[in-house]
């Protein structure tokens, strides 16, 4: 690699963006939006019959394939990069002799408000959860790297589910308590309610349904762990190009690959040997979480390697503007998805194959919009608003 290219790729401070991080974020948002499209944006209403016999095959292949590739992984990448972004902002302020922690707490308050706006359209949104869990970053940002990664790993190990497993092992009568299921209420609103009635349900029952689901599926501790892992990645500068860093990435790829296949096999085997659901359910959740994390690492390394070693980076760089406007893309997909699939809007009744094509079309539209927008502005609409409000009344 030429010296000029090296400088371009390795710049990390002085407000220079790391392009591969934007590409990864764009890759994650792309996966999230296409998944949401085949789920009809958390509205599981599908035609009883397919228009063509061959679509029975494509519907299943697309559903299984997309969830295998992106289910639980795209969100993990997005969460990891949330922690990484905190590092960039915190480090930039530290270099100016300023403490970013209180300003970041205000930034989380703003994200919570933005999340409420997003939740009005889409029940399974994550911004509200990020705003609440994000407090772990200013709390832990003064810890050394060793302690930071230890806490991150402990959180990613799913400690609550291990407690449930141990409890069930030693108490045969133990039954894990489950939260109230609000999804029936939200489905009814999505399928029958007017716009304002839907908003009312989404902002209460929808938020509760989403947060309870996140807790019961291990997403709370996993997200906190990924935030801290992203902070650690920023400190170690692994996204900065160097031969040594690339060797580290390849080691992670080897480690994740060696774990992924036996963990995948365990998911299918364990139900044949454990009948007690109080043990089986949390254990399967733990193994699924570990499996998804391994595949997430594999995806990250593959994107990083393709970016740094591809002879023609033009095609992969197209995802960079999409990643730079990830917040705008995430919120706009909620509005568009709600408009097209819910009762208050067009109430489309599409099978999985057509829904996947809808998701690809939505992604393409957003990609073109982002590319054009960033030729004229430095930030996306919601990114710019969030930034301006973050630094309101600040002397910079």
Could you give the topology of this structure?
Blueprint: H1 3-10, H2 19-38, H3 55-70, H4 74-95, H5 101-119, H6 127-133, H7 136-140, H8 145-156, H9 159-170, H10 183-192, H11 195-216, H12 219-236, H13 243-269, H14 277-309, H15 314-317, H16 319-324, H17 326-341, H18 352-373, H19 381-390
Helix pairs in contact: 2-3, 2-4, 2-17, 2-18, 4-12, 5-6, 5-19, 8-12, 9-14, 10-11, 13-14
Q: Would you mind describing this structure in some detail?
A:
The chain has 396 residues and is mainly alpha-helical. The chain has one domain (3-390). Helix content is 73%, strand content 0%. Helix 5 (101-119) runs antiparallel to helix 6 (127-133). It is globular and about 60 Å long. The two termini are 36 Å apart. Mean pLDDT is 94; it is low at 1-15.
Q: Can you tag this structure with a few keywords?
A:
single chain, mainly alpha, disordered N terminus
The number of helices is 19
Helical fraction: over 70%
Rg result = 22 Å
Uncertain spans: 1-15
Instruction: Tell how many strands the DSSP assignment holds.
Output: 0
Major sheet summary line: none
Distance between the termini: 36 Å
Task: Describe, in short, the structure shown.
The protein is an all-alpha fold and 396 residues long.
């Amino acid at each position: 690699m030429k010296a000029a290219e090296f400088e371009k790729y390795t710049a990390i401070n002085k407000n220079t963006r790391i392009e591969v991080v934007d590409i990864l974020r764009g890759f994650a948002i792309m996966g999230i939006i296409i998944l949401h499209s085949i789920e009809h944006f958390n509205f599981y209403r599908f035609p009883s019959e397919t228009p063509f016999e061959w679509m029975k095959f494509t519907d299943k292949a697309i559903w299984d394939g997309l969830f295998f590739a992106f289910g639980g992984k795209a969100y993990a990448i997005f969460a990891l990069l949330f922690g990484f972004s905190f590092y960039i902002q915190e480090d930039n302020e530290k270099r100016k002799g300023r403490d970013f922690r209180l300003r970041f707490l205000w930034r989380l308050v703003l994200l919570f408000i933005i999340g409420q706006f997003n939740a009005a359209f889409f029940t399974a949104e994550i911004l509200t959860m990020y705003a609440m869990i994000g407090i772990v970053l200013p709390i832990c940002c003064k810890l050394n790297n060793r302690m930071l990664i230890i806490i991150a790993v402990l959180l990613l190990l799913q400690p609550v589910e291990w407690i449930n497993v141990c409890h069930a092992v030693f108490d045969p009568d133990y039954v894990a308590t489950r939260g109230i299921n609000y999804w029936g209420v939200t489905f009814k609103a999505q399928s029958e309610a007017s716009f304002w009635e839907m908003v009312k349900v989404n902002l209460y029952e929808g938020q509760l349904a989403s947060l309870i689901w996140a807790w019961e599926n291990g997403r709370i501790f996993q997200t906190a762990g990924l935030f801290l892992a992203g902070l650690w990645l920023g400190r170690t500068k692994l996204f900065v190009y160097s031969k040594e860093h690339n060797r580290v990435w390849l080691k992670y790829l080897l480690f994740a690959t060696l774990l992924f296949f036996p963990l995948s096999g365990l998911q299918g085997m364990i139900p044949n040997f454990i009948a007690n659901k109080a043990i089986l359910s949390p254990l399967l959740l733990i193994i699924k979480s570990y499996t998804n994390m391994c595949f997430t690492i594999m995806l990250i390394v593959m994107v990083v390697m393709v970016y740094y070693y591809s002879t023609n980076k033009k095609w992969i760089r197209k995802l960079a503007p999409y990643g730079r406007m990830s917040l705008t893309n995430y919120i706009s997909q909620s509005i568009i998805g709600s408009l097209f699939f819910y009762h208050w809007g067009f109430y489309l009744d599409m099978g999985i194959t057509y829904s996947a094509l809808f998701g690809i079309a939505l992604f393409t539209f957003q990609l073109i919009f982002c590319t054009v927008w960033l030729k004229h502005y430095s930030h996306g609409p919601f990114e710019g608003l969030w930034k301006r409000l973050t630094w309101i009344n600040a002397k910079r």
